[in-house]
């Protein structure tokens, strides 16, 4: 099952089920049944507002987010779907950090659930830097279906990898 690189952490049984869907050319169909349409957040401004709304709802006391944008330089191939960066600058006698979130441009044309999963993941990095138990607990606090959306997103990446066609464009 080496061709299922996005699903390598899942059980052999799960990988076999996905391989069967691919062999029958049904993986895209399954995803389209679960998620029928893409979101409407096409601009950086709309994405920024969406992420700020999530932050306001779940992470009120966290440091502010200075920038949120789609980034065409992020490649899924390099195992990055989004990036959270903290840029530290000295202003006077103080050290200030500016937080930026960048989301791969491919997420302009996916269901809102996938975009939400990426946004929640990157927001969680404001509080928790490592991908540990506390990090995933925070992710599931902000989005109870986080793990399902992550799995389905991995299915979509696998579908893109095997068939090469976008489902929601």
Describe this protein's structure.
This protein is an alpha+beta fold and 169 residues long. The protein has a domain at 38-145: 2-Layer Sandwich (Zincin-like), CATH 3.30.2010. 47% of the residues lie in helices and 17% in strands. It is built from six helices and three strands. Strands 1-3-2 form a three-stranded mixed sheet. Strand 2 and strand 3 (94-104) form a beta hairpin. Helix 4 (112-127) packs across helix 6. The chain is elongated, with a radius of gyration of 17 Å. It starts with 11 loop residues before the first helix and ends in a 6-residue tail after the last helix.
Top CATH class of the domain at 38-145: Alpha Beta
Named CATH architecture of the domain at 38-145: 2-Layer Sandwich
User: How would you classify the helix and strand content by structural class?
Assistant: alpha+beta
Give the biggest sheet: 3 strands, mixed
Poorly predicted runs are none
Whole-number mean pLDDT: 90
Q: Any idea of the CATH topology of the domain at 38-145?
A: Zincin-like
Secondary-structure element sequence?
HHHEEEHHH
Q: Estimate what percentage of residues fall within beta strands.
A: 15-25%
Total strand count, please?
3
Helix content: 40-55%
User: If strands are numbered along the chain, what order do they take across the biggest sheet?
Assistant: 1-3-2
Tell me the span between the first and last alpha carbons: 28 Å
User: What is the CA-atom radius of gyration, in angstroms?
Assistant: 17 Å
Q: What's the total helix number?
A: 6
Shape by Cα distribution: elongated
